């Protein structure tokens, strides 16, 4: 089995990943971690697009389960020598990894690669496609905090058109019974999507999930003056005051302080779950690696 | 002992590497691999020239034997700060690796480094010099497929002048008793080499080993129009029809589809050994690492 | 506890690191190294400034103690996406490393990061700040060679203004009782520092520690003609002849042969400790990693 998109997961698998993710979260807080269940297995991280946090997160997750981890980064790739993605996949497959984790700037690239691989493939972000492990870690973080996801009012705000994080989260959180509200600048909302104004989305919300806006888009697509994005589409203290009691702020990172979110909210000691998301990220990826290799070995 | 060139190996050592390579090939197909014979040893990969497949192949090979693997890539190197190669070698040596794997764009660089190191050095490709582990994995792939190398008609076709793969393969396959035929564009044949036309070389051949042509050379050295290289010097279906019954196609990769080889031949389900070569690559490198560390520890 | 500067270490801790460093030095010369005391711990190397030898040294040191090692390099960092250093630190901290090793081009960056991290932080070089593990390995090398540091005449020569190596060494060696002499081009001496002419500094010295001069500074700051730096400020055979009997040459590397040091002195079989410094580097870093994790686990 592969982990390419939220829809590729059964309800049971999602439940297992969230449960196990929470368990690994506690495990990682121990002073020593001596789990070796992936001993003798090779995890290959094929990152065709730069990433710090996602790559580190997968590397640490795989190490903590005792796997052998090998990372290939795009700038060293023979892609540059004109090799097709399919030929690269055949090459990687011939090295007999036990899991391939792939990030690629082209939507659908992980699925094309998975069609060739004999081992499970995890999509670690593909173009404007999906980023399923991010959605899973977000769901696990919400569930850990609130004890449930069903019935929560969750606002996802920002560049909905280009965000694979928004796409995967919308699919997963809706499936888990959340009351979803999408909001963003008009020019950054896909035509097929029902969206609202940010003030409407945030009102009474239990969770406000802000998306990163590409700085390049601020000027090009939005003709934005400095600070304008924050006041029009970002999460300010004023807007956050309109949320439900006990509401929390989330963000997949890295954050642009003062652009899509006010710095004081990002740093809020009890209302911000942003750092918690990163911690849950390692844990949920451990759960994913474990689930996928178990499905392969049994 | 070092593994710098084909001539640096005794007949016995070559036989051991091919035998052990085949054994590791089967081993790697197991669901778990728990060999730890290089536990406690440090393998340093010093890659002064970019490479995806060769670096990954060595990293995975070393990991599968339980070694500690550290990789240094050129763009992070103090070479750029004006350090001489010899001073870099002295530095690496002082860190007491148990094997140094080196790729370098200058022919002879691995030998210069080996003269300084106290540990075995493996040449993973040096300029237009040699690439002995590629030749060994090619020989192991051929032997696994045909059960022998002696007496086989093997055509090596392409840019013979700049190919270290061609050089190492010619030395090794001749030594193992193959009937070698070299072919390529006239301007890409070393003056000292006896070569023939590709049609002549391919006729009745058991193995056709196509070399990668640098796209830059197509225009610069050959004044080549698009598609012209394939029809004049590449492996087309028509040419392949002239080979012996049961003939196979090989290529060190990455391949330029439609340039030196027709895509349908590269993908041929029974006649193409190209993906098999990659798989054998990890296995043969495990054999090399094992042989060289054993020679050091005994 | 962190290892950010020489002053952050107690006398006892310095003594422990030097003692243990010498012990690991011998240990690393064994054919196999099977220490696993950091098994189950995660070491993250966050290098925001390129480095070959220091990064390799830390990676090998951590591997030799059985730790899981993950390396993040600047060019893949979300720093480029505009994330603040503090946010990067919060992200790294959330991944729950057991030690963070950081190199950064801004002085004080490791201290800012350490203020956020829950685990020990090692400064692997910060701007024109400090490089404490380099000073520790230098001290260990001197002590191993002479059996003591107290009372030795040690000349530190070169670009004192920009050298974090000089700064950390001056602090440490003075504290250990050495008779320190600093020398360098007038324009490269901090106004607060008492320095002398190189000929004066070298006369009767037991140790001459030459600093690397940035090639860019030669022209820009010094208006230096080729070879002029060596004759005016570098270590020539003539100058070395004025040192004490049994004097040794040191250099943190990478060296510029013929610029700050004559090649024949760098290579001197008995008087040069330059390669020994690199070897001691791995050993002293093992001691530091061990000390810091022990302080955390107990």
UniProtKB/TrEMBL annotation, chains A, B, C:
Top-level taxon of the source organism: Bacteria
An MF annotation (GO) of this entry: amino acid binding
Protein residues bound to carbamoyl phosphate: 53-54, 103, 131, 134, 253-254
E.C. designation(s): 2.1.3.2
Cellular component terms per the entry's GO annotation: cytosol
Keywords associated with the record: Pyrimidine biosynthesis, Transferase
GO biological processes: 'de novo' pyrimidine nucleobase biosynthetic process; 'de novo' UMP biosynthetic process; amino acid metabolic process
Transmembrane region(s): none
Domain Aspartate/ornithine carbamoyltransferase Asp/Orn-binding: 150-291
Top EC class of this enzyme: transferase
Pathway(s) served: Pyrimidine metabolism; UMP biosynthesis via de novo pathway; (S)-dihydroorotate from bicarbonate: step 2/3
HAMAP family to which the protein is assigned, alphabetical: Asp_carb_tr (MF_00001)
Family: Belongs to the aspartate/ornithine carbamoyltransferase superfamily. ATCase family.
Subunit structure: Heterododecamer (2C3:3R2) of six catalytic PyrB chains organized as two trimers (C3), and six regulatory PyrI chains organized as three dimers (R2).
Listed name of the protein: Aspartate carbamoyltransferase
Organism name: Sphingomonas edaphi
Taxonomic lineage of the native organism: Bacteria, Pseudomonadati, Pseudomonadota, Alphaproteobacteria, Sphingomonadales
Gene (name only): pyrB
């Amino acid at each position: 089995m592969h982990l390419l998109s939220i829809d590729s997961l059964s309800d049971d698998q999602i439940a297992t990943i969230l449960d196990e993710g929470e368990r690994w979260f506690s495990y990682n807080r121990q002073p020593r971690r001596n789990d070796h269940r992936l001993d003798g297995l090779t995890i290959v991280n094929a990152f065709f697009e730069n990433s710090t946090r996602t790559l580190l997160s997968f590397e640490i997750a795989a190490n903590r389960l005792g796997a052998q981890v090998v990372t290939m980064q795009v700038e060293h790739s023979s892609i540059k020598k004109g090799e097709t993605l399919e030929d690269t996949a055949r090459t990687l497959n011939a090295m007999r990894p036990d899991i391939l984790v792939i990030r690629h700037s082209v939507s659908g690239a992980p699925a094309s690669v998975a069609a060739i691989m004999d081992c499970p493939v995890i999509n670690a972000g593909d173009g404007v496609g999906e980023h399923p492990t991010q959605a899973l870690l977000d769901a696990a973080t919400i569930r850990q905090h609130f004890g449930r996801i069903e019935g929560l009012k969750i606002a996802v705000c920002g560049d909905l058109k280009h965000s694979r994080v928004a796409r995967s989260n919308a699919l997963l959180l809706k499936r888990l019974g959340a009351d979803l509200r999408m909001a963003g600048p008009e020019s950054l909302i896909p035509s097929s999507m029902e969206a609202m104004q940010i003030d409407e989305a945030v009102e009474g919300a239990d969770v406000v999930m802000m998306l990163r806006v590409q700085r390049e888009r601020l000027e090009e697509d939005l003709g934005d003056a400095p600070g304008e994005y924050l006041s029009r589409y970002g999460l300010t203290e004023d807007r956050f005051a309109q949320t439900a009691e006990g509401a929390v702020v989330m963000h997949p990172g890295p954050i642009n302080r003062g652009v899509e979110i006010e710095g004081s909210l990002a740093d809020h000691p009890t209302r911000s779950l942003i750092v918690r998301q990163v911690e849950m990220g390692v844990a949920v990826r451990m759960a994913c690696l474990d689930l996928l290799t178990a499905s392969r070995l049994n």
